[in-house]
Write a structure and sequence with these properties.
Distance between the termini: 40 Å
Number of strands: 11
Strand content: over 45%
Structural class: mainly beta
Strand order of the largest sheet: 1-2-3-10-5-8
Length: about 120
């Protein structure tokens, strides 16, 4: 069993105003041997650069309504929606007037897998 207490995890601040808490990075001992779980906060009005992940899948769980550009199409995402990005799916947050909180699960967890457009 692993018990993760949210308030005990260090919060990292990014240059664009986002905050990130690395909730879990786990070696699973299988072919895809690492999993990373992040709690991400987008501040109101954030403009996130479009990007893709070359080998990783990303699973996003949204606690709040959001707008995203995904593969050159814009989407309105509802609270509680889950979006699964496959490797090379191009995506990024579109500005919205409120904070957006989301849980991001990345597998495999690969350093420098993100490619900006």
């Amino acid at each position: 069993m692993k018990w993760i207490k949210f308030n005990e995890i260090e919060m990292q601040e990014r240059n664009d105003g986002r905050t990130v808490r690395k909730l879990l990075k786990e070696n699973l001992g299988i072919e895809i041997n690492e999993l990373q779980i992040l709690f991400v906060t987008h501040p109101p009005g954030i403009i996130e650069a479009l990007h893709s992940h070359q080998k990783s899948f990303e699973i996003l769980y949204f606690f709040d309504k959001a707008r995203y550009s995904i593969n050159n199409k814009n989407y309105e995402i509802e609270e509680g929606d889950i979006v699964v990005f496959e490797p090379k799916d191009i995506h990024g947050a579109i500005p919205i007037p409120h904070e957006v909180r989301l849980l991001v699960i990345q597998t495999p967890a690969i350093i420098d897998d993100k490619k900006y457009l």
